[in-house]
Design brief:
Layout: H1 22-37, H2 40-50, H3 52-62
Helix pairs in contact: 2-3
Length: 94
Amino acid sequence: MDSERPKPPAAGMGRPKCALNKTTRAAKEAIALAADELGGAERIVEWAKEDPKNESAFWTTIYPKLLPLTVGGDPENPLHMLQWPLPKSPLDQP
């Protein structure tokens, strides 16, 4: 006699794609609330303008978190990568 209980229909499927777990969602909400309490967007701009290092931190650490992780392209209009040569370093000379 099999005494196992039947599994729910969605058992083992996991979270839907791109769905945040409850802890991550709660942490992001707490950070957003704190940012609002500290002055919101106006304060972030003020902070970034206080010091060039702050502005660099904004563009290199904070802002990229808003960008998508992957970039999709259109086969009819492919993305083109542009590259510039790096300047010669004094260490490259013999």
